[in-house]
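Hey, can you fold this one?
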Amino acid sequence: MSKSSRVVAGVVLACLVAAPAVAQQAPAAVQKLSSAKDRTEVSITVYNQNFGLVREVRDVDVSKGRVALEFRDVASQIQPETVSIKSLAGAAAINVLEQNYRYDLLTPEKLLEKYVGKKVRIYRWNEKLGKEDAFDAEVLSVNGGQSVFKIGGEITYGFPGRLAFPEVPANLIAKPTLVWLVDSAAPKQKLEVTYLTRGMGWKADYVLVLDDKDQKGDLTGWVTLTNNSGTSYENAKLKLVAGDVQKIVDSPGYYKSKMPVAAAAPSGGAGFKEEGFFEYHLYTLQKPTDVLQNEQKQVTLLEAEGVPLLKKLIFFGAAYYYRGSYGQVVSNQKVGVYLDIENKEQNKLGIPLPKGIVRVYKADKSGAKQFVGEDRIDHTPRDEKIRIKMGEAFDVVGDRKQMNWKTLGTCSSESDWEISLRNHKDTDETVELYEPIGGDWELVSQSHPSTKKDAHTFTFTVKVPKKGETKVKYRVRVRWC
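Sure. Predicted structure:
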């Protein structure tokens, strides 16, 4: 082999040896950025346990090949592990190789921390010269808002002045950002991204205005939506979920928590449309709305006029009364005032009502509405009853006396009771005596008809004349072991 042939062969061999190493080097990723201006669609599903589901679609210029895509304007309280990304062009259009969530935000303190061990410039105003003096300083430490500098060969802290930095460190960002390393099959992609975020919640509140006879009321409901997630969503499709959705909560002890979620808005004139969804109900506001950061928004939930209701006066007892000798148990005890509403269609309701506070008003003789009480209701399906406690009656009171007590054994007794109800109003009233009782029991005698509510409760419904008194007497035999 000639000398020239040997040279050519060596070059070819060197190329063959080097080829695999070259092939193993990944091509450099193209840097791309997507922000809220790329959004073409956004929808939010809000739960009342301080979290929400965000779904947004963006038209993104990603280029072909390997791309480092910065996905900005996401919630600062995002749960990164819940992120889902897909191309609407199909599964093969984009392949996510890596995801990073960058939340080291650019703040004055963070910026100074990043310059520990580096040089900065401090400008201090000189009153005599009428201009700023510049000092070159080395940042030695930053701790709890206090900074230590080395200036002109001296170590100092609390040095007044305006700090100036040569540049922003690469690992500090203005807003929380998702960064994906992807393989893109097309230069432009329509990407759908979904994620859960904390900092979103909603609750229901109700206003009930009574008529002059306390027999009907106008009920208005509101949804109060709060967004503290860290970003705004404009022109969003708003959805609410009704049901008990289980969500795992990570803590140092790591436990599971079944998180109750409020029932959502009914369909109808309030602008919400209801649909069955899994074992829950999904309600969608029929027009887009802006859900802005640090905003509390109220949307009409329901409006119902002339809802029939029943006012009740209830005088409660206690189960322990029957297990000892007491004499007079209570004197001048207040009688509770309640409003009962049946959530039925014929009562102009018949819709799922979320838990919330009902505030009740009534017009006085001048026509001015006055506040008369409030209570919290639980989730109430259609065709169930709602009971609202208003407070205590001012003019209807009662006494409860134990007239006789006799033991029948180690844990049994027989006792006589007298309940006196006094009505100081100018109208007749009906009072329900609610008598909880434990163990095995039997009414031996009674002055008024009673009703057995359940295994441990009996009641009397008693008419009390205006400015009058009614006494209810009964004897009961009880065994509690």
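Helices lie at 3-24, 108-114. Let me know if you want another pass with a different chain boundary.
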